[in-house]
Amino acid sequence: MNTDHSTAQPLSGAERKSHARPVILVSVVVAIALVIGGGIWSTSSSGADTRKADTASAGGGTDDKGGDSGGAVQKASTVSKVLFRVPAPAVENVGTVSTTGSWLTDTVYAKTGIAEIVGYDPDNGTELWTIKLPGPVCQGSDHVTDDNRTAITYQPAMPTEETPSYGCSRIAAIDLDAGRKLWTRTVDSGDGPISFGNVTVGAGTVAVGGTGGGAALDLASGEQLWAPKPSDTCYDAGYGGGPKLVAVRVCGTSGVREIHVQTVDPTSGKVISAYEMPAGLGFGRLVSTDPLVVGGASDLFSIDNRTGRLRARIPAADGRYVVGDDRIYLPTEEHDGTNEIVAIDLVTGKRIGRRADAGDGYTLLPLRMAGTKLIAYKRPSYDRGGQGGQIVSIDGGTFKETVLLENLGPLPDDSEILYARGNLYVSAAYAGEAYLAVAFGAS
After folding, report:
1. Which CATH number is 130's domain given?
2. Which pLDDT score is estimated for 373?
3. Is 297 exposed, middle or buried (0-12, 13-18, 19+ CB in 10 A)?
């Protein structure tokens, strides 16, 4: 296995012990499913805000897509209303054109459209800026820097019937506050540019990876810092960003495959620590890079970033989890129309005594952390007589639940969900829904 990620000549200067405890967890798709009933992206609150017109277009204590930690902000009313809607762009083949990517800062809610990214006022939906692109956005990093910069990959041209994809070969850094591209570039391998399947931002570095190769670029300048060494048997399948940069390196053939999870120096590519996933368990995704948590097909692995040693192995099917305060919050399997959220200590792998009960007729799904509080979506069952969903905060110590936003209307599958400062932003990953994005706030 190649453990050094840097090229031979860089292109720039710059106890294994299982504490398993039986925990039955719900298996939910990574793209959170929030279907409540008939209709799409409506609100069961009676009063829409008539002062704000629908907007037509021409993502520690902070969440990684921007926004403050004010998830627990209490407003005079918790009943939801629609702040604004962004109509869906017209497409011929519904559900096939990617609109993945949404980010939230103090001043901008940014959403990917068809071959563009548009910035909106987060309170009223007024269009602030537009970044035009020659082709669709393939992926956007889930992480945003302190100065509100992120990165995307996109196609160099619009797909056609003859050419359904031109490959995700273009990389760009985006200033979300200013609404402009900082730079755009490609990375060549052999006779053409590499098409990437993953992009992230970690500690000031943009990292892109895929079966065709990978690269790390300086976020400020776009200058290439390093690239994984070429190998016939190994490649960097992808990277996880945020406060640290973690690489998932795959070695061997499809029959005998090794998966190495490596914390790397974002500037040099030097491997700081590495953990080899147990054979036969597969690899799901990077749940968190600091603390480092990775998911297999049936287990979660808590790993020490510094040494690469296993801290705890936690039985859990792939699903939606939230990491904070050196614990992981997991939804239990649904039973009798309800479920709970439990917390597992990432050092011991044992469950922390308390739990958050969804209550009769509701199920809970974790969304994000706000300091020591967990923000979760409380979804009603179909027989709740039209009662809407809720956004709640759950105290990490007492597990006391506080309602932040309620009477939320139906939210579709595969939604991108951002919540900050008392507002909820829901957007579509593919064109063809009734709306590209809808923002909810308290009335």
Report:
1. 2.130.10.10
2. 95
3. exposed
